[in-house]
Amino acid sequence: MINIDNEIHLYITKPEEVETSDLRKYKDLLSSDEIERHDRFKFDNLKNNFLITRALVRTTLANYLGCDPKSLKFETNSYGKPSLRGISFNLSHTDGLIVLAITGSKKIGVDTENLNRNITDIDIAKRYFAEPEYHEIKACSEIDRKYKFLEFWTLKESYIKAVGKGLSIPLDKFYFKIKGDEIKIHTKEDSLSWQFKMSKINDSHLIALAFEGAEMPDIRTYQTIPMVKIL
């Protein structure tokens, strides 16, 4: 098994780069329940994205654990977060991008959003975000408002995914302050034990990482097509 306790490895896949011939190989990796989930999708693009996502997860994690991708048995907690013994990981996908974050034993969360998505940012922020975040978004110009909203959104999603409780944690019960590359969470819990990082991919996607630890470890990013290439 590969030891990455002091690193985060980020695998990025663009579904548009995957060939139809690859999709056929991906379906052979799925478990019976994953095949059932795949077959329930009505549209081909959703079916294909599901195949790519599951192939990315299975092949990449199997490489770290030294096993057959098809042999992986995922457990889920009461909130539906999947896990495997011996490794910590989290997955996110949006229009045009799939991201898998992997580390050793610490909790990790990742979220990605397409910067071109249409959103009513100020209305959502007023309803769901903490007041400091809402007022910061409201103070932005119309040009900057959506980007600021997505910064907070991806950070919030990465945090609740890392904790493993999903939206059972109200989004208005914690908030973020961003000053350059410094990102701080303000919460009633121990906010000193969490580190955050944001990055842009090709000016079209935003990625946020949440990591449980006193320091953010080194982050290595790989662009990959499952079973084809890693760059």
Assign the CATH architecture. Answer: Alpha-Beta Complex
- How many DSSP E strands? 12
Question: Which strand order spans the largest sheet, edge to edge or round the barrel?
Answer: 4-5-1-11-12
Order of helices and strands: EHHHEEEEEHHHEEEEEE
Q: Classify the secondary structure makeup into a structural class.
A: alpha+beta
| Uncertain ranges | none
Distance between the termini: 21 Å
- Assigned CATH superfamily: 4'-phosphopantetheinyl transferase domain
Amount of beta strand: 25-35%
Query: Roughly how much helix do the residues carry, as a percent range?
Result: 25-40%
CATH top level class name:
Alpha Beta
Using the CA coordinates, give the radius of gyration: 18 Å
**Tally of separate helices:** 6
